[in-house]
């Protein structure tokens, strides 16, 4: 595992009232987390990393016989180019859901680029899916973090995120998917990458299936 933070000053209250208010906030946060796909909800929960829903880092690999149908997707990149699943057909594809103000997205950006550089001469494609920003913000991010693969700007209709959500849960930002050469979800990384080696191994495994 699509922005500015806001904090509210606390008023003084008796200890019992403060305890009750704290409990209410915890209940509200839990309820909001259950519907974290809503950008406003994500903003509330995230603080300075608006839209980031904190959770345990997890890597899930899906056996070939348990993978669903190929995911068909289409969108327009930050440079205004159309990009679809037809353009990456036959490749192992890494799909990263991100946006510029997401702290974990910034931290993992060099690792994503590192793995892309490692495999860019193989039958591998990388595609970012920006779930919050407009094109200019995405291009500024790419320049700052030296990202050379394209990102689809998905904020307007969320069509790409919806296409993948039909195949696998997209509950947090960042989320990174590895698609096999048939376009099926082969692995899912939830949360910030903890080093490039994990993603590199997942890509190598998917490539080995086509050998």
UniProtKB/TrEMBL annotation:
Residues 1-36 form the signal peptide. Its main location: other. The keyword Chaperone does not apply. One of its GO terms (cellular component) is cell envelope. Keywords: Cytochrome c-type biogenesis, Disulfide bond, Redox-active center, Signal, Signal-anchor, Transmembrane. Residues 34-211 form the Thioredoxin domain. One of its GO terms (molecular function) is oxidoreductase activity. It is found in: Cell envelope. InterPro entries: Redoxin, Thioredoxin-like_sf, Thioredoxin_domain, Thioredoxin_ResA/DsbE_sf. Transmembrane segments: none annotated. CDD domains: TlpA_like_family (cd02966). GO terms for biological process: cytochrome complex assembly. Pfam families: Redoxin (PF08534). This is TlpA disulfide reductase family protein. It comes from Microbacterium betulae.
């Amino acid at each position: 595992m699509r922005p500015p933070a806001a904090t509210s000053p606390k008023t003084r209250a008796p200890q019992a009232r403060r305890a009750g208010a704290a409990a209410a906030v915890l209940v509200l946060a839990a309820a909001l987390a259950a519907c974290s796909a809503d950008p406003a909800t994500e903003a509330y929960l995230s603080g300075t990393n608006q839209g980031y829903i904190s959770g345990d880092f997890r890597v899930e690999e899906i056996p070939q016989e348990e993978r669903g149908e190929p995911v068909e997707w289409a969108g327009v990149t930050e440079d205004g180019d159309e990009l679809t699943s037809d353009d990456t057909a036959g490749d192992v594809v890494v799909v990263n859901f991100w946006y510029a103000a997401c702290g974990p997205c910034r931290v993992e950006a060099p690792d994503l680029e590192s793995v892309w550089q490692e495999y860019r001469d193989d039958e591998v494609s990388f595609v970012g899916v920006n779930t919050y920003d407009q094109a200019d913000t995405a291009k500024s991010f790419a320049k700052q973090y030296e990202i050379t693969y394209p990102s689809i700007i998905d904020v307007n209709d969320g069509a790409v995120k919806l296409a993948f959500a039909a195949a696998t849960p997209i509950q947090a930002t960042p989320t990174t998917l590895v698609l096999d050469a048939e376009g099926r979800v082969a692995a899912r990384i939830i949360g910030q990458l903890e080093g490039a080696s994990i993603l590199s191994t997942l890509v190598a495994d998917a490539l080995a299936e086509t050998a």
